[in-house]
């Protein structure tokens, strides 16, 4: 059943190129995103007075990356909320708003309750769900199914990856509908998305650098992840994945926030996984990396291809393969999944079934 892989998590990481292809291909027509076969009317996106995204855990982290790409391409504000917060704070959701619900299982109790609340408030709901016929899929006004296949490992990997792909396609569609990007740009972005699976597949053929980095952090009691912008949102997912399966305390911080408190925790040898991928924020993040390095941190830098840092800045670097800025999140995410996996493996833990956790959280 594990297809020769030691754990389902690793198998599922390697299934991601195929899952991306299966999810993206049916939503591309004439080189542009098209959700007509999902029965998502353009008006739903175009006329939304406000856009909200709500979900739990990894699905919420996908929503944060979705926010950044939607805001960038369509210039519309997108609010992202943890479902268990959203439902109890009388959210400012009104008739005519669009609420996007993200869930692998389609059964997460808080996410389902958030969906019901949004509907009661008169919003339109669009669910991005993996499990066909699940409660969230049945109750939402429209559903975009991700085609990750069955995900068995408690730590979500391929479901997150395909959630990202749907959110990127929606962002391009929204950008076109709002007139913020033209058709040529839409086609360029969609063709980049269409190629990301192949790039990911090549990257997965040699994971030796990630495995080596995992060996350096396996004994650490605490690990920090830092990044800015989209890299910060990816850091949050990297920290969740690592803590979930390795039982190491991990925290993600916006790199620019370090000085406001967290820097006091950085002492000799504390590992910092630093994401400095997003081009326009690179210089700023590098200066934060130097701050932690000067306090003795062991820095693992995640960088774009060809970017070299001296050993005064980073102790080890992991490079993304050649790719466009638009598709960087997919590759960064896979690096962080592998880092979590090999760290937990180094500790000999039950990777597919971490203690105290369930695959589907159907109770509050
Ligand atoms: O099935 P869902 O996507 O609604 O699940 C949400 C979270 O419970 C889930 O993503 C959880 O955070 C994962 N175990 C993280 O790897």
Please provide a written account of the structure:
Helix 2 packs parallel to helix 8. The two termini are 31 Å apart. Strands 4-3-5-6-7 form a five-stranded parallel β-sheet, with helices on both faces. The longest helix is centred in the middle third of the chain and has 22 residues, at 183-204. The protein contains 13 helices and twelve strands. Helix 6 links the parallel strand 5 and strand 6. With 364 residues, it is α/β, with parallel strands linked by helices. 5-amino-5-deoxy-1-O-phosphono-D-mannitol binds at residues 56-59, 103-105, 108, 111, 154-156, 240, 244, 360-361. The site of 5-amino-5-deoxy-1-O-phosphono-D-mannitol (M6R) has 16 residues, from helix 4 and helix 11.
What labels would you give this structure?
binds 5-amino-5-deoxy-1-O-phosphono-D-mannitol; 5-stranded parallel β-sheet; 13 helices; alpha/beta; globular; single chain; 364 residues
SSE blueprint and pairings:
Elements: H1 8-14, H2 16-24, E1 28-29, E2 32-33, H3 42-46, E3 51-55, H4 57-74, E4 78-82, H5 83-86, E5 98-103, H6 109-120, E6 124-129, H7 135-139, E7 142-145, H8 158-177, H9 183-204, H10 208-217, E8 222-227, H11 230-246, E9 249-254, E10 271-276, H12 282-294, E11 298-303, E12 316-319, H13 328-346
Parallel strand pairs: 3-4, 3-5, 5-6, 6-7, 8-9, 8-10, 10-11, 11-12
Antiparallel strand pairs: 1-2
Helix pairs in contact: 2-8, 2-9, 4-8, 4-11, 8-9, 10-13, 11-13
Residues 56-59, 103-105, 108, 111, 154-156, 240, 244, 360-361 line the site of 5-amino-5-deoxy-1-O-phosphono-D-mannitol (M6R).
